[in-house]
Write a structure and sequence with these properties.
InterPro entries: ATPase_NBD, MreB, MreB_MamK-like. The protein has 331 residues and is an alpha+beta fold. It contains 11 helices and 18 strands. Helix content is 37%, strand content 27%.
Length: 331
């Protein structure tokens, strides 16, 4: 009996849920290759440690950018490795449910299912991330009620209004947490003339980044390479500067929420004032993002309990009761 599997193939992190076991794997979506021999050296945490620290012939790549597959071969190898890790071989080919951004094109859709099939899945089904997130957060999606989910991932932000098991209004922008990291990098380069790597930018975001003024803010020391002299240098960044630096991507996310609210039918719009909006995804953990959205939309915003896991848990629900929730799939 092959075990069915749900995969949340994210730009930043990949999570795998196995039927009857729960989440078995949660790793960064990074794979390290030797470009001379095309061997896979590491994936997940190990490969993530290598980003920006490799010799010329080793590349640590993220096979997905902006929620789309940029490198088909590498993605296929990554899915194959993931399936091998959870014990899939030639003899037990599982049914796989993969979470994809709702802004996905038909070509990208086919690329994902094809990659999964070649990697050893018997059937590959796709489910939209906001839908999976709503199921995973335990929202009453089959009721005639307005449920709004904001899913902020590494490469995409999606806002979906769900009622009666279907998406009523949807707004997706290809702006995510990586754009926040990039904005921090650009800011430090522009203001201080210092180049920092993407991992450093991510650490700054996690440590002092915020989208709305919060209490007990502090500054952080940032180490990087000065562009003029080429020497290592340390500067001090305040939380306020970081907030200013990341304003553009954060505003894009807030605008997407406002645009989605603008598409909502009036009956569902009034439900949202009572129910509130739910914030999921790793990017939703940015400090004060819920307050920022709340202040601009006048609708209460709740961060769900497990923002990172909710999407894969929702897909996991579909795997557990496969036939009942088949209608949720995209194909």
């Amino acid at each position: 009996m092959a075990r069915d599997i749900a995969i949340d193939l994210g730009t930043a992190n990949t999570l795998v849920y196995v039927r009857g076991e729960g989440i078995v794997l949660n790793e960064p979506s990074v794979i390290a290759l030797n470009s001379r021999t095309q061997d896979v050296l590491a994936m997940g945490h190990e490969a993530w440690q290598m980003i920006g620290r490799t010799p010329s012939y080793i590349v640590a790549v993220r096979p997905l950018r902006k929620g789309a597959i940029t490198d088909f071969e590498v993605t296929q190898r990554m899915i194959r490795l993931l399936l091998q890790r959870v014990g899939v071989n030639r003899f037990n080919r599982p049914r796989v449910v993969i979470c994809v951004p709702s802004a996905i094109t038909a070509v990208e859709q086919r690329a994902v299912t094809e990659a999964a099939r070649r990697a050893g899945a018997a059937e590959a089904h796709l489910i939209e991330q906001p839908m999976a997130a709503a199921i995973g957060s335990g929202l009453p999606i089959n009721e005639p009620l307005g449920n709004m989910v904001i899913d902020i991932g590494g490469g995409t932000s999606e806002v979906a209004l769900i009622s009666l098991g279907g998406v009523v209004a949807l707004e997706a922008v290809r702006v995510g947490s990586f754009d926040i990291d990039a904005a921090i990098q650009t800011y430090i380069r522009r203001e201080y003339g210092i180049a920092v790597g993407e991992r450093t930018a991510e650490e700054i975001k996690v440590t002092i980044g915020s989208a709305w003024p919060t209490e007990n803010e502090f500054a952080a020391e940032v180490r990087g390479r000065e562009l003029m002299s080429g020497l290592p240098k340390t500067v001090v960044l305040t939380a306020e500067e970081v907030r200013e630096a990341i304003d553009e991507p954060v505003s894009a996310m807030v605008d997407a929420v406002i645009a989605c609210l603008g598409q909502a039918p009036p009956e569902l719009a009034q439900d949202l004032i009572e129910q509130g909006i739910y914030l999921v995804g790793g990017g939703g953990m940015l400090r004060g993002l819920d307050l920022r959205i709340e202040s601009e939309t006048d609708v209460p915003v709740h961060l769900v309990e497990a923002p990172l896991e909710s999407v894969v848990l929702g897909a996991g629900h579909c795997v557990e009761s496969f036939d009942a929730l088949k209608v949720m799939f995209m194909d």
